[in-house]
Amino acid sequence: MVEIDGRAGGSILRVATGISTCLHIPIKVTHIREERENPGIQPQHLAGLQAIALVSGGVLEGAHIGSTEVKYIPGRNWKKEVEISIPTAGSISLALQPVLVSASCLPYPLKVEVSGGATFGKWAPPLPYWQYVAFPLFHRFHYKGEAEILRHGFYPVGGGRVKVYLEPLTFTEELDFRERGEIRCFRILSVVSETLRKRKVGERMAEMAEKKLRQFSYIPIFSRIEYVEADSPGCGILVLAECEKSILGADGIGELGKPAEKVASEAVEVLLQDLRSDSACDRFFSDQILPFLALFGGVIRVPRITAHIRILLPVLEQLVSCHFSVHFPYISCKKER
Prior knowledge:
Layout: E1 2-5, H1 10-23, E2 27-30, H2 43-56, E3 59-61, E4 70-73, E5 81-91, H3 92-103, E6 110-118, H4 127-139, E7 145-151, E8 161-166, E9 175-177, E10 183-193, H5 201-216, E11 221-228, E12 235-243, E13 247-253, H6 260-276, H7 283-296, E14 298-301, H8 307-319, E15 322-327, E16 330-335
Parallel strand pairs: 1-2, 5-6, 9-14, 10-11
Antiparallel strand pairs: 2-4, 3-4, 6-8, 7-8, 10-12, 12-13, 14-16, 15-16
Helix pairs in contact: 1-2, 1-3, 1-8, 2-3, 5-6, 7-8
């Protein structure tokens, strides 16, 4: 059993259990999130742990809210369908991450249904990011995934409903995310609860995002505004740049007292920062691709070395027979023979 120090953040727990399932390595994660203000396992972490155990037929010990230590022994009794329940407004994206990693190595497709949780949440990519950025990029290395949002969820109630369909990898080769090519167009997606329609929150976010993008370039911009039924008021925006060889995205989420224009402006600024770096992927996808870079090898060009990257590289080297090299802006990984 491999023992992993999880004090630096929940990403260690999510990635470690996903890799553990792929490689069938029992793990013990200790000191879980002890460096955070609310240490231990939170609802979205628990939902992800329970889901990954269902996927493999594995055994969990110590998995409960507030726990700072958990043991996970992956099984081989693979399921084709699993359900995840998140009783809070915890991030659906975070709950799904270990499943997304493990499903790439399963022997057949996997269907996941999520009830509860937030489709837009702080400190995590929203579900539309997976739909329009991450899944299309995963498809480049033959990992097919689709997400259907049946109901959006916002803080503080959550109440989202999502279906995800994942197909295992049929062909593996070293990953190469070094070039993005020219920007072809920008896309803006504003998602707003119906209760905020009279305040034109969707229009205000979209207009500010388009204004900021126009200051950067006269590349075509396509905008969509969705007013949705939700259990609590909320809003979020996704802005993305479709390029010849890649897609880069950034998002913003509404908060009480925060103007819609500021939500959009901040999201666009993050996207433009990553575009100016000439990176092949955005800062969020840089984190999401790391487990697959460890499993299959390759090289990526990133806009910055994030805290998540620093945290995850030693954990991945501990679990996978691989070696990472960081020569900014490139991160490469070689499989050990």
